[in-house]
């Protein structure tokens, strides 16, 4: 019986042990299924990542997993890299594949991770740049591994290289320009400059970076430049070209010409101002020389016009003297007409002598002076003829056309004074001066006197005066003349400006 009892107890223990083993196997299978699910989920996540991922055994550097993005990035077929040493994808450059690997291993041992730019190699032999993040962890299937996540930054590196080349080119251009370039922060402190600006003001590189633009500007210009900053640069983003003065390190003040541009950062905030600075000492000296030369020429031209006027007045006086000594009324009249014409020419030179502009004269002012002279020379009583001069603003006549224009007006006004109002007849003489839409000058001389006889043709006249008028209008002024005989006589003359 005891033996049977012992046998039964042994069987119960063996059964209990078997059940425990079955339970452990069931738990192990459950854990295996859970682990398979985790690994499958991890594989799905890695397979769908946009970055290239590889898993490498930490002990020997052999690749145990590659995701599709990594294979595509490096140009390999699916599964082709698995089992290969990771150095197969490292490009030889400044650092050898071994040096890069050792650097990563050292960082992994110290910090457990590494990240930086690496020069990689595609299957076709073309190298490219990646940014890699490498970390070390224990994988349930592969043991201790490195997981590397790669991003292709070739385009970024090329863009950086292009920027560097552009910046180098800009720097060379910046330093080679004859004009000074200076960048001033919003606090007024000088931040950057080129060689020309430094030479212009005479400070060292260390000294200039401690100064503000006001330190270089004489005090009398401070409020002026502040207005430029507030009303131009800050409102419209740039300034018009303006002049001011700078003070050199040795105290010398010299003139400069500036144009300034407002600079903003990527958020749109103001960070400073770029100024193009040009030393204009030589130009100012040249301007002073030119101004002095022009003043000298003005004085000379003024003196010439004064002398011509005086000579013409002498000739006029001689004709008057000659006319007074001749008993023939016809000859006396002819001499008086010639004298009147010479006086009209002298008046042009008198107006030019008194003017600031020797290239043209004010037509209305000339006509007023000429009319008054003719009224006095013909002894017209006040109130007999009303003189009305109308003008559409200030009308100027070129110096080349002033003399023929003066002679024409002299003839027409003289004719009206002498013939339009005989005896005690009173009337009105109207002179209108203006510019047409066709950029022409139009002069109208109109009277309400007896009128021009019907048999007089202005274009074929036996009168010396009218023949002179017609010839001067056509040949000297390149103009046109028209005569109207309604309610007196009206002459309309047009010629190009």
Question: Summarize this, please?
Answer:
This protein has 497 residues and is an alpha+beta fold.
Secondary structure elements and pairings:
Blueprint: H1 2-47, E1 52-57, E2 63-66, H2 68-74, H3 97-111, E3 113-121, E4 127-139, E5 143-152, H4 154-176, E6 180-185, E7 190-193, H5 195-201, H6 205-208, H7 222-236, E8 242-247, E9 253-264, E10 270-279, H8 281-324, H9 329-354, E11 360-362, H10 363-377, E12 385-391, E13 396-398, H11 399-420, E14 427-435, E15 440-447, H12 464-476, E16 480-484, E17 489-496
Parallel strand pairs: 12-14
Antiparallel strand pairs: 1-2, 1-5, 3-4, 4-5, 6-7, 6-10, 8-9, 9-10, 11-13, 14-15, 15-17, 16-17
Helix pairs in contact: 8-9, 9-10, 9-11, 10-11, 11-12
Give the neighbour order of strands across the main sheet.
Answer: 2-1-5-4-3
CATH class of the largest domain: Alpha Beta
State the end-to-end CA separation: 151 Å
Task: Tell me the CATH topology of the largest domain.
Answer: Heat Shock Protein 90
Oligomer: single chain
Shape: elongated
Radius of gyration: 51 Å
Tally of DSSP helical segments = 12
The mean pLDDT is 79
Number of domains: 4
- Give the number of DSSP strands: 17
Largest sheet: 5 strands, antiparallel
Q: List the helices and strands in order.
A: HEEHHEEEHEEHHHEEEHHEHEEHEEHEE
């Amino acid at each position: 019986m005891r033996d049977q009892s012992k046998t039964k107890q042994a069987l119960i223990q063996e059964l209990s042990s078997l059940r425990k083993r079955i339970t452990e196997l069931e738990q192990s299978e459950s854990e295996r299924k859970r682990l398979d699910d985790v690994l499958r989920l991890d594989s799905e996540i890695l397979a769908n990542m946009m970055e290239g991922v590889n898993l490498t055994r930490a002990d020997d550097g052999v690749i145990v997993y590659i995701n599709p993005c990594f294979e595509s990035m490096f140009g390999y077929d699916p599964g082709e890299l698995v089992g290969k040493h990771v150095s197969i994808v490292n490009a030889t450059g400044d650092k050898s594949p071994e040096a890069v690997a050792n650097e990563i291993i050292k960082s992994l041992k110290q910090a457990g991770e590494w990240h930086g730019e690496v020069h990689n190699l595609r299957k076709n032999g073309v190298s490219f740049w990646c940014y890699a993040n490498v970390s070390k962890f224990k994988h349930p299937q592969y043991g201790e591994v490195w997981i590397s996540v790669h991003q292709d930054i070739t385009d970024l590196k090329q863009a950086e290289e292009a920027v560097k080349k552009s910046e180098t080119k800009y720097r060379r251009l910046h330093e080679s320009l004859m004009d000074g370039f200076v960048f001033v922060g919003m606090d007024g402190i000088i931040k950057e400059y080129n060689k020309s600006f430094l030479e212009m003001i005479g400070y060292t590189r260390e000294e200039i970076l401690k100064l503000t633009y006001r330190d270089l500007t004489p005090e009398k210009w401070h409020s002026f430049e502040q207005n430029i900053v507030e009303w131009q640069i800050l409102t419209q983003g740039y300034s018009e070209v303006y002049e001011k003065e700078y003070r050199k390190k040795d105290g010398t003040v010299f003139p400069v010409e500036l144009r300034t541009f407002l600079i903003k950062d990527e958020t749109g905030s103001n960070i400073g101002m770029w100024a193009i600075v040009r030393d204009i000492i030589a130009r100012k000296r040249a301007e002073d020389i030119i101004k002095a030369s022009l003043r000298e020429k003005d004085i000379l031209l003024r003196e010439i016009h004064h002398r011509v006027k005086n000579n013409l007045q002498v000739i006029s006086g001689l004709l008057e003297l000659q006319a007074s000594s001749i008993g023939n009324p016809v000859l006396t009249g002819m001499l008086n007409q010639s004298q009147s014409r010479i006086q009209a020419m002298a008046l042009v030179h008198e107006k030019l002598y008194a003017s600031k502009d020797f290239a043209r004269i004010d037509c209305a002012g000339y006509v007023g002076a000429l009319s008054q002279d003719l009224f006095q020379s013909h002894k017209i009583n006040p109130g007999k003829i009303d003189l009305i001069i109308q003008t559409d603003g200030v009308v100027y006549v070129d110096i080349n056309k002033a003399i023929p224009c003066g002679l024409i007006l002299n003839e027409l006004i003289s004719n009206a004074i002498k013939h339009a109002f005989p005896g005690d007849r009173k009337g009105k003489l109207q002179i209108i001066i203006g510019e047409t839409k066709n950029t022409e000058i139009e002069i109208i001389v109109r009277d309400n006197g007896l009128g021009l006889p019907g048999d007089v043709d202005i274009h074929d006249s036996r009168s010396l005066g009218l023949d002179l008028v017609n010839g001067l209008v056509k040949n000297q002024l390149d103009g046109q003349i028209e005569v109207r005989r309604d309610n007196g006589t009206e002459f309309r003359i047009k010629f190009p400006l």
